[in-house]
Each structure stands twice: as structure tokens, then as C-alpha cells.
Amino acid sequence: MKLANKVAVVTGGARGIGRGIAQRFVAEGCRVMIGDVLEERLAETVAELGENCAGIVADISQQADAQRLIDEAVARFGQLDVCVNNAAISRLASLLDLSEEDFDAVMGVNIKGAFLVSQAAARRMVEQGHGGAIVNLSSINAIVAIPGLTAYTISKGAIHQLTRSGAVQLAQHGIRINAIGPGTIDTEMAAGLLADPEAKEKIMSRIPLGRLGGTDEIAAIALFLACDESSYVTGETIYADGGRLSLNLTLGPDERGPEA
Of 152, 186, 230, 259, which one is the catalytic site residue? Predict the structure, then answer.
């Protein structure tokens, strides 16, 4: 098993991509601590994944909660080897209409939260003295500008630089930082959007592979970036989008739907 005797923290792991990553990590011998704000879904996921998975309700936009998540992982499992920053939210609004409150909310979780958890995790890894791996969940929206997803696209662009900057600074400690940039993945968020036949047709027309990605496919990349097989990879983002970025199909100015 590729993560035998390893301990990981996964934020936003109660559902969707985060749950898929936690599930794959546990299957590979890892002990996983999930942090999420969805208390009921968190309890369900932890119960399903068994004794090698635990979870706490945590709002990672708050430093105390970010630190508590790392501390609880170490207290429960004895160490920390991998940190996956998956938690993210979105608010649909144009640049002209986006409120300060919504902007702050998205930035608080998507980039501030990723920074706070990364910082706490990295400090622990440095203290332990045997390196580690941090995996950030970015998006194709770090590259393409989707109308109506102003705050989300900005936050994912920031994740790109958090990954690169952190990788350079922490390399001396044997800590690698990489990111995954999903396209449209088959999650609850996507299901709501695809319920509209017109929206579904537009989205599918932009994916050369002609299908949505699966959470298991993103989890497989997270596993690669977390394990020793990627020991010489740091500061990189792997885009898993079915060819969406390569197609480079532009959107009309009135298209406002999320891509990830």
C-alpha cells in the first residue's frame, strides 16, 4: 500500500472530491483526519471509512480551527505526513455585483483557509524532521476566467501561487507542495448544474473526452502527489480536465455557470 503508516489531513472531506481522496488514502493504508463544517455528512463519512478515519467540525478560515485540525490529527494518530487542502466554496456573482461579504467568505475558505492549514501542517512537518507532502486543490478556473465566478477564480489563481511559493520555501525541509486543477467533476455541485439540459450541453461541448471526471480520478492524482512515487515533483499543478484547457474554447459574455 502506497501510504502505509502515513497520516493525512483532508479538509472538506465529508463529500465530493475530498471524500473521494479520504477514501482512497484509507484504502492505501493511510490514517486520515477530515476537517469539515458539514457535521452530519462528516459523521457519515467517518463511519463509512472506518477506524482509520476520524473527523472534526472545523472552519478553516479561522486560525484556531485550522491549528486544531492539525493538532487533533497528531493527537489521534501520532504524526502528520500529508495535508490535502480541498475545502472550497463559491458565490455566483459578476465583478459589478459581487458583495464584499461574499468575496470575503470565498477568500476566507479557499485561500486563507488553505494558507492557515498549510502553515500549521508545515510547521508540524518541520518539527518532525522527515518532510511531508501538501496537496492543494486548485481548478481550471485558476487559468480560465469564467464569468460570474469572480471570487472563486481569483481564489484558485491564488492557490496556484501558494503552491509555487510554498514549494520553493519548504523544499529545504523535504516538504513538497503540489496542486490538482480539476475540470468538471461528477459531484453534487455539478449535478445541480447539469440538471439544466442547455447548461449540460454547453459544458459537455467544452470537454474533448466527452464526459465528466470522477472523484476517484482526482483521488488517484492526489495519491500520486502524496506518495513517494512523486518524490521529485514539487511546485507543480496537474490539470485533470478531460482536455478542456487544451481545447481553449471561449465562452460568451453572458455565460455565468461554474466549471468545477
Answer: 152
